[in-house]
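Need the bound structure for calcium ion, inputs here:
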Amino acid sequence: MSAGRILLVEDEKPLLRALAMNLVARGYAVTEAETGTKALTALADHQHDVIVLDLGLPDMSGVDVIRAVRAYASTPIIVLSARSGSADKVEALDLGADDYVTKPFSMDELLARLRATSRRVATADEAVTATVGSVHIDLTLTTATDREGNAVHLTPTEWKILDVLLRRPGKLVSGDALLTAVRGSSEHTDPSYLRIYLAQLRRKLEPEPSRPRHLITEPGMGYRYRP
Ligand code: CA
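Answer from helper R.:
Posting the output first, comments after.
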């Protein structure tokens, strides 16, 4: 069984080759890309389990690759950063990268990050329960129960929205990403669609729907579940 399919994005050819050989030897299936454009094409062609992404690419910034990926996919991203400054790493993490490794790094270090990332993803697919206000939510069973034990009825669309937000506690999810998860595409969809559903969810779940504390709107950015 393959350990997983990795998209490896790195423009330094010797490093790209060395990483690919090491990963293949450890049972990973590897797609190699030397530019951001090739990386985005490879992602459109194949499902990948993890993206390992150099931030300094010849045709576009790795940060722009993250932005493009996160507009439609939640594939885990581990950033390779040559720079010692932390600003680019913070920006990468803010945009949705999951972890980073600073060059030069050892193969063992990268492998450890890959294993940790895969574990996090596996956990996200297991039973997930969360609390919004006083409502207990089980995403696996799709049950919502208030403090008195009464069922709270949620529509299929509301469940889809909660599924995206509650599995990523604290993480900012862009409006486009949320629309894509709910509708399969963010095109031809009025952004007010999300506002209406979020307002509905707050009425059902938030103790004070007009002053949400858990289902947060970040104006111009997206939405965030705050536990
Ligand atoms: Ca580079």
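Comments: The two ends are 36 Å apart (CA to CA). Residues 129-225 form a domain with the Arc Repressor Mutant, subunit A fold (CATH 1.10.10.10).
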